[in-house]
Amino acid sequence: MNKALSPKLKKFLDFIQRFTLVNGQSPSYEEIMSTLGFGSLGTVNWYVKTLEEKGHLSRIKGPNGKRALILNQNETQTATIARLPLLGLIAAGEPIEALENPEMVDVPPSLLHPDHYVLQVKGNSMIEEQIHDGDFIVAKKTSIARSGQIVVAIINGEATLKCYVPNSHGIELHPRNPKFPIITVDPTDDFRINGVLLYSFRNYLN
Amino acid sequence: MNKALSPKLKKFLDFIQRFTLVNGQSPSYEEIMSTLGFGSLGTVNWYVKTLEEKGHLSRIKGPNGKRALILNQNETQTATIARLPLLGLIAAGEPIEALENPEMVDVPPSLLHPDHYVLQVKGNSMIEEQIHDGDFIVAKKTSIARSGQIVVAIINGEATLKCYVPNSHGIELHPRNPKFPIITVDPTDDFRINGVLLYSFRNYLN
DNA sequence: ATACTTACGAGTAACTTACGAGTAAAATAA
DNA sequence: TTATTTTACTCGTAAGTTACTCGTAAGTAT
Fold it and tell me: Nearest CA to A201 among B175, B105, B203, B82?
């Protein structure tokens, strides 16, 4: 296990770790290439060989093993990590604000999935859903929902978080707190479902 | 025991498990073929042989046994597990209600620690802390706290969740929502800190 | 007979690896 | 200061390997 890794090497290693964690299998050279923005498989191969020589990477299936890259956990490493990307900030009535460099946030391992993502709530515009400023929500990316699920929806460009209730007249969005009004989606509205809510959490650490 | 199964192998294994569970017997090769969309028994056979070699599948009736596939329940675990015990139910103004058989709940791996535990919130007595009915809280067991931390405290046998602020006059407990009153702990009160709040979450699945 | 399992040969797409060459920046020698 | 070498990457492609697929025929237990 050699000296310090260059930022590029480290980024490469990080990507493999995250991809494997989220997708359940390690990425192919081609997937690495396109995600990391390389123009050639040769480049990917150079990284793999370099990291293998330095002892940070191994092939689990011997030579020519497909999707067989794993990182060597140097014992100093923290416990298993389970993280999802923090894609943006959400506030009711405003567009979702995407983050350029999504950081990764810890979540329960059972929530790991390629289609899951995290948003942080900005402001108290969602107290009717009992979600507060600074809270995080985990959602599953999908454009369809079942009745009763809480959806991350965009109506005319404005984000909202409500319980999805389709009926014969159209679509209704119910707040969790019955004191607030039910929204009825007009057929002329631009209505899109962004995902369904799975989990929300708040961190009290500093 | 080769761990890295490809998604297809995994799906195959999953199907056998589910089928056996539902039907009480394992599927025939032909049933596997049609359900999983293969065009040939050879393909099914290839999967069985491969999974057997990797140690994930066994034939319970020896060679040529009919409907004799079973999974080796070695490390049936899906992903990494990260769980803490759900010790009890908490409601402001009442004693903490301990659970006899604490079940385990999923948490982010970064929260794993022997001194950490989970409580579920009962009722809406903690909305002043922006914690709602059914929410879960993760706390660290300790009897001391630093100023500014949110503590799980017991005053005269009644549970409360507040921000701990000691000063020259004694101990004050501030709610997160400033509209609610500050509690000043009387020296004659039986005041104990049960733990400090680390994390709270809510699950929207089911 | 019937209901299955097993063996074998062959094909294809997905994937890894080897090789040869190039560049810009930093380190070293002149 | 300039010339040179080394370092840390980058590119394109051909060739090799594996993962998975197919079809069919022969085997085996009730």
Answer: B203
